């Protein structure tokens, strides 16, 4: 599709017909149902998060030095209330790969993605030294670019990107401003909202269209309201010890959850009374790496990875101070990405991080680090009766 043509012509129609909804059950252990592994090279192909598509059909991940990859959800997981514990782990293979060699700063799905409508199947990415790219999720082709320029008319790389709730606009975080592009008009036409510090993280509220949270490397979060091309400052939130790396709005839009680098707390902000945090929950984050958080679509479950490889779960609908509802040791290395499926009880996780080179051997090939994209069933599970009978018979004979 050329830049002169419409980038997105169709309206958003939720694609849920093939899914049978099943709730998360964080009382059970996580059952691994899918995995994709990247080897250890000297240039360290570790993963940088993962995100389910809004329609739940596929999973997007970025691998440092090895591009972007879209994995399809195994077809047997679309329906059914439970999964057999003997189910083999599916070897996930990329349905679409984009060999983007540079460092990817941020990426996000088009919020109206519907696999039944090819025009809506796309995602954004922003990388080192280049413009913002819109990629086709079916072919991996580049649809168009959005180019932000600095004060000497040079193309500037955005550190963070996100769509507006309706997908009509793209918010891009730069060193001194947030640039807003019209999704249907690629190129260099944009409006700017000035900021004091570099925008490291952006998230748009689904419940309150036009409200955007801007996280910065200087530990602050600014909430703004955008309408008719103008911007209005709402409030500024202070409380983190490091630069903001991840945020998520609650379903009703009244809460904002945020996490920061080298900061071992997730803060929940009540945006109706934004003067102080509503509560804080702990997690293990001892590096500058982005460790993402996610909320379930019903707003009940908050999940976070950690540099210790563990995934923690909180029930944030509890009236009292929420404690860790469940803690799962899912990875042997840093778990930097978590994403909850919108319709099925499936948690996606991504692992990996930068490791210092051995000063004696000058190589990492002899060391085995985990760089994996995994899918975990967090729902009802059933024992395979044939397998159970075999185990009982073997125990009896022994």
Automatic annotation (TrEMBL):
Gene Ontology CC annotation, any one: Cajal body
A single GO molecular function term of this UniProt record: RNA binding
Transmembrane segments: none
Biological process, per Gene Ontology: Cajal body organization
SMART domains: WD40 (SM00320)
Cross-referenced PROSITE patterns: WD_REPEATS_1, WD_REPEATS_2
Keywords: Repeat, WD repeat
A Pfam family per the record: WD40
Family that this chain belongs to: Belongs to the TCAB1 family.
Protein name (database record): WD repeat-containing protein 79
Source organism of the structure: Exocentrus adspersus
């Amino acid at each position: 599709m050329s830049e002169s043509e419409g980038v997105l012509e169709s309206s958003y129609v939720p694609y849920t017909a093939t899914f049978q909804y099943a709730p998360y059950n964080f009382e059970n252990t996580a059952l691994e149902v899918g995995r994709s592994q990247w080897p250890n090279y000297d240039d360290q192909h570790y993963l940088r998060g993962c995100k389910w598509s809004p329609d739940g059909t596929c999973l997007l991940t970025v691998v440092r030095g090895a591009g972007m990859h879209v994995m399809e959800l195994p077809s047997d997981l679309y329906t059914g209330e439970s999964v057999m514990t003997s189910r083999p782990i599916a070897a996930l293979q990329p349905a679409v790969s984009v060999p983007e060699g540079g460092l990817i700063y941020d990426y996000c799905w088009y919020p109206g993605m519907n696999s039944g409508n090819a025009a809506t199947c796309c995602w954004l990415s922003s990388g080192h030294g280049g413009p913002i790219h819109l990629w086709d999720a079916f072919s991996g082709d580049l649809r168009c670019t959005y180019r932000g320029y600095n004060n000497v008319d040079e193309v500037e790389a955005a550190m963070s990107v996100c769509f507006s709730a309706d997908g009509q606009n793209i918010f891009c975080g730069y060193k001194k401003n947030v640039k807003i592009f019209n999704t249907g008009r690629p190129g260099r036409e944009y409006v700017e909202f000035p900021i004091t510090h570099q925008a490291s993280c952006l998230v748009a509220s689904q419940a309150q269209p036009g409200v955007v949270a801007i996280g910065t490397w200087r530990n602050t979060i600014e909430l703004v309201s955008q309408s008719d091309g103008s911007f209005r400052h709402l409030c500024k939130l202070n409380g983190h010890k490091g630069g903001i790396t991840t945020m998520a709005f609650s379903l009703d839009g009244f809460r904002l959850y945020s996490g920061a680098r080298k900061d071992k707390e997730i803060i929940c902000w009540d945006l109706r009374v934004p003067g102080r945090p509503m509560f804080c929950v702990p997690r293990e984050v001892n590096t500058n790496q982005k460790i993402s958080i996610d909320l379930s679509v019903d707003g009940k479950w908050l999940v976070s990875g950690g540099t210790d490889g563990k995934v923690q779960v909180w029930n944030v609908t509890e009236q009292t101070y929420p404690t860790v509802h469940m803690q799962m040791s899912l990875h042997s290395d840093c778990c930097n990405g978590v994403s909850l499926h919108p319709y099925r009880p499936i948690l996606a996780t991504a692992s990996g991080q930068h490791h210092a080179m051995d000063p004696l051997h000058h190589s990492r090939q002899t060391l085995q680090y985990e760089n994996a994209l995994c899918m975990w069933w967090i729902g009802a599970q059933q024992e395979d009766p044939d397998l159970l009978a075999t185990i009982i018979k073997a125990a009896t004979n022994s």
